[in-house]
Design brief:
The chain is mainly α. Helices cover 78% and strands 2% of the residues. The N and C termini lie far apart (36 Å).
Length: 219
Amino acid sequence: MIKLFRGARRNPSAILLVVQLLGVLVYPAMEGSRGGRVGFEILGIVVLTLAVFSVRSTPGLTWISICLGIPAVVLSLVDVFWPSVAVLVISSVLHAVFYFYAAYSLLRYMLSDHDVSTDELWATGATFTLVAWGFAYLYVFVQALVPGSFTAAVNPQDDRTWMELLFLSFTTLSSTGLSDIVPITSWGRSVVMLEQLAGLGYVAMVVSRLVGLTVAKRR
């Protein structure tokens, strides 16, 4: 247990990545009920806490993460019991800004030197998932302001669920193009294009740099 705790302290990015990937598997079981949404928010609190802990190991300012994360979680819980478009809009914006700031902090951490540590390799995956989460919340924001911004093969007239928008975010950021969720308004397409650019830039600038430094170190 002590070794596990020490490993977590040395590699906070690894814990963040693992919890987020577990969340991808757990989220579908939480959709469709108030209890599930509460569980979803509790899991979100865990992810946010781990993200703050990871930011503490980077040049990012912890207090900024806390000031963004706490209001986002509180508003999300409020939206569970008292749904409101205004609350959803503000909450999704705060979540998006929080995840983007955490991703920015991890990027600074990875690019701060020319040595590639084990935690920096984990941070490569954690940063990707943070950006994907951030854009998913941007999609929630766009859908709240412009209903019908996204459609799908199943129930095309309905608003898309969180899991559907997260799926769209992952497929767009990774440039796989496998999503059946399609933006059909100008605002939706604008955000999707920004995420496509972010995904290409991340692979070209960050991943390729870490791979090059790792190969150079071994040589």
